[in-house]
Amino acid sequence: MAKYFLILIQKNPEDLSIDRINEPTLVQLKRLYLLSYTLTNVMFQPIHIIRLDERNQNLFILAGHQEKIEIVITPNGEVF
Hints:
This protein is an alpha+beta fold. The protein has one helix at residues 26-42; strands at residues 5-9, 16-20, 47-52, 59-63, 69-73.
């Protein structure tokens, strides 16, 4: 699985620190792909934000023309 890294720039540009970002599980990524495809190519709904909640590792999706579609994907792949 691909690794994601975030580079935080300190006050001194020569001081760079690399912190590892929390990653979604493989099951979450597969569900995210299927849901994203369905939302955009079948339902023609825009996706506004996808966020990994660091507290519980749930993926959150906010979608829809009026941002009324909220989807949560748990680390084991359950969708709410």
